[in-house]
Write a structure and sequence with these properties.
Blueprint: H1 2-28, H2 33-46, H3 48-62, H4 78-97, H5 106-125, E1 138-139, H6 141-157, H7 167-176, H8 182-190, H9 206-210, H10 219-241, H11 247-260, H12 266-282, H13 290-308, H14 314-319, H15 329-349, E2 365-366, H16 367-378, H17 386-391, H18 399-430, H19 436-456, H20 460-478, E3 480-485, E4 495-500
Antiparallel strand pairs: 1-2, 3-4
Helix pairs in contact: 3-4, 3-7, 4-6, 5-6, 5-18, 6-20, 7-10, 8-10, 10-11, 10-12, 10-19, 12-19, 18-19, 18-20, 19-20
Length: 505
């Protein structure tokens, strides 16, 4: 017994006291990156037992949370850090327990590994990763890390299945965490005393800060509104949305839609319109009385909008400016100017496609060239899109794939989309009834993001997270993939078998 006491004392004096002294030293000098990193590491070590149990749930919650890890180089977004941590802990758990918990879906994992190979090959073929945060005069490392984080995130999602009793909870947290995007808009409006929040959240308030006083845009509200709309459609579906005994659902949906339009993005209405139409189709309502009801409702809403559009905030009018209605000239001209410079840029960029057809350009670019170009633009010597030619932010999904990664990057992504679509469709068709609404939504959501990425707007390094997160969570919630098992002429209808986590897991 005395030996145990002396061992405990030695641990206190030999480990805990020096650690406490170091923590105190770094707390006495706050603000340094080294101190913040050390304190965060100590904090994570103390939370390690909780992380072992809850890391997968934390990953799902953080995926759309708009949080950043400000004390790490480059201030990466939290979901990528959590994805790497969760995947590492899942692998460690399988090794120590000698029990397989991961879900193998080769239709998705193989193309993602192929895409990972293309990304790594491009890094070496174009001279490295760059990284301003690492002291290099070459920028672009964060785009590579974002892509790699999105790919790692998928494998972290499917490292274990969501327990059946927590399926809807995890799906809800996945989308509702997007409400945090409104934080920076609120912080900017509240004044300098709340600006410290910008250190913890993705800065959506930049649109609010740089737009005209007459046209104030709230990007964070737009993201938060979309998050609520996604949650309602996932949780209740269109059938539940129009349930007259639960009118609050429709009221919350309309309120979230109105909130999202304050961002001034035309894409908001396009995304929600596509999502609603696809879910309406997959739920089979095009053959029911809901079709004429919604058609009449659309006419009524359009008539109301035409009458009152001039009294709406300019940001909302900008969101509606692509419709054939009479919006304010300020809102229409502001929206049209962004469309014009994109069309001009695409005419220039498309000429580079043959040049980078086989081996892509990558993401690395010279920081000096970028800063000099920005200075020339400010003086009116260069066109408004010249800086995007350097950074690769072409505002076009196909162009942001083929120019950085060539045809092989496009083929790997197409292979991934094909595999993910087949998995989502299989779970939609053959999944259990209690998951029908959820699986229907994820199918509609995935195709909505894909159509928007290919046709309207896309940035490959930023958008891959939507696809890997959606398919990863869907597989994790379903515990794998549901497939038909056709019997040889003995039964008329197919039975269903399940391909997923082994029964003993």
């Amino acid at each position: 017994m005395d030996r145990i006491k002396w061992t405990a004392l030695l641990m206190v004096y030999g480990l805990c006291l020096p650690l406490a002294i170091l923590v105190g030293y770094f707390l006495a000098e706050p603000g340094t990156s080294t101190g913040l990193s050390f304190i965060s590491l100590v904090f994570l070590l103390l939370l390690f037992p909780m992380l072992l149990k809850w890391h997968h749930a934390l990953l799902i919650t953080c995926w759309n949370a708009s949080l950043i890890v400000f004390f790490l180089p480059g201030s990466p977004e939290l979901e990528y850090v959590v994805a790497a941590t969760s995947l590492g802990l899942s692998i460690l758990h399988e090794i120590l327990k000698k029990q397989k918990t991961s879900i193998s879906v080769t239709e998705v994992s193989r193309p993602l590994l192929a895409l990972l190979f293309v990304v790594v090959f491009t890094i070496f073929a174009t001279g490295g990763i760059g990284g301003r945060a690492l002291g290099s005069d070459q920028f672009g490392a964060m785009k590579y890390l974002t892509l790699l984080g999105a790919i790692l995130g998928y494998f972290a999602f499917v490292a274990q299945a969501v327990p059946p009793e927590k399926r809807m909870l995890m799906g809800s947290l996945f989308f509702l965490s997007g409400l945090l995007a409104a934080t920076t808009d609120l912080a900017f409006a509240a004044g300098p005393k709340f600006y410290f929040l910008f250190a913890f959240f993705t800065n959506y308030a930049i649109a609010q800060a740089y737009t005209q006083e007459t046209l104030v845009r709230f990007s964070g509200f737009a993201t938060a509104g979309l998050a609520v709309c996604n949650f309602i459609l996932m949780r209740y579906g269109i059938s539940g949305l129009v349930n007259l005994s639960k009118p609050w659902r429709a009221l919350f949906f309309v309120g979230a839609l109105a909130l999202s339009l304050l961002g001034g993005f035309r894409s908001t209405l396009v995304v929600l319109g596509l999502l609603f139409a696809l879910q309406f189709y997959f739920e089979g309502h095009f053959r029911t009385k809901l079709l004429p009801i919604f058609a009449v409702g659309a006419v009524v809403v359009m008539s109301f909008t035409i009458v009152f559009v001039q009294k709406m905030p300019l940001a909302v009018q900008r969101s509606l400016s692509f419709l054939p209605i009479d919006v304010s000239a300020v809102a229409r001209n502001d929206a049209q100017s962004t469309l014009d410079w994109r069309l001009q840029m695409w005419k220039v960029v498309v000429k580079d496609v043959p040049k980078f057809f086989w081996v892509g350009k990558g993401f690395k670019y010279d920081g000096t060239d970028y800063l000099l170009t920005r200075a020339a633009m400010d003086r009116g010597f260069y066109s408004a899109y010249e800086d995007t030619l350097i950074t690769g932010n072409y505002h076009s999904g196909p162009l942001t794939m083929i120019i950085p990664f060539g045809i092989f990057g496009v083929l790997a992504f197409a292979w991934f989309i094909r595999g993910a679509s087949r998995v989502l469709y299989a779970n939609y068709l053959y999944g259990p009834p209690e998951l029908k609404t959820l699986n229907t939504f994820f199918l509609a959501y995935f195709f909505t993001r894909l159509l928007f990425f290919l046709i309207f707007y896309g940035q490959f390094d930023r958008d891959l997270i939507f696809f890997t997160g959606a398919i990863g969570l869907n597989i994790s919630i379903n515990g794998g993939v549901w497939r038909p098992d056709y019997q040889e002429a003995t039964v008329a209808a197919p039975t269903v078998r399940f391909a997923g986590v082994p029964a003993e897991a």
